[in-house]
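not sure who needs this but someone in the group chat was asking about Dihydroxyacetone kinase subunit L from Candidatus Sodalis endolongispinus so here u go. i didnt clean anything up, its just raw.
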Amino acid sequence: MSFANKDELLIAKNMVAIIQKNKSWLSEIDGAAGDGDHGINMNKGFTLAAEKFTPEMTMSEALLLISQILMGEIGGSMGPLYGCWFRGLSRASGDRSVIDAATLQTMFDKGLSDLRTLTPAQPGDKTLLDVLVPALEALNAAIATVASEEAALSALKSAAQDGFDATRAMQARIGRASRLGERSIGHPDAGAGSCLLLLSAFADTAILLIEQGKAHATTPE
């Protein structure tokens, strides 16, 4: 099963909502190794984007709007990084009327490849890559076994959680937190935290939409 791009502004709305709900938590974990403004900046960018959503927007159009706001309206390093990622998600799906397993794979492949044009970070450096890379690997592995879209999205979400949890034991090797050296060990990475939230919101909403589509398809006229 799949869902229609033209009808699913809900995915973008729920990605905004999860950042808004967890802005304090993001700033709290950022304060352990950074300047404590990650939640503030992310909330600002996502809220500004949500204010410009229109009911007619497709999922891809809303994701592109988030990209534009993040790159143009919030400070720090995370705005351009996430802006680039969202732009990749949008461009890989913009011409697709149906979001199915193959499109999901293309979207997250493109998002990651675009993000990597801006950062030299690799898994193990204690960044959002420690969530994105294993999440994408899990998605691709599930799709390769001809798993359902729901199973593939659940695998993505589970791997994202594991990736975030693993950052706690890592020493930061890139970004502001790297200046702390070994003192960065013992705290999860804030960028990894926001990435976990965004992937979870995407996966949970997409699974809900797919299940609703199945229920509708089996409801007798």
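also Strands lie at 3-4, 98-99. if thats useful
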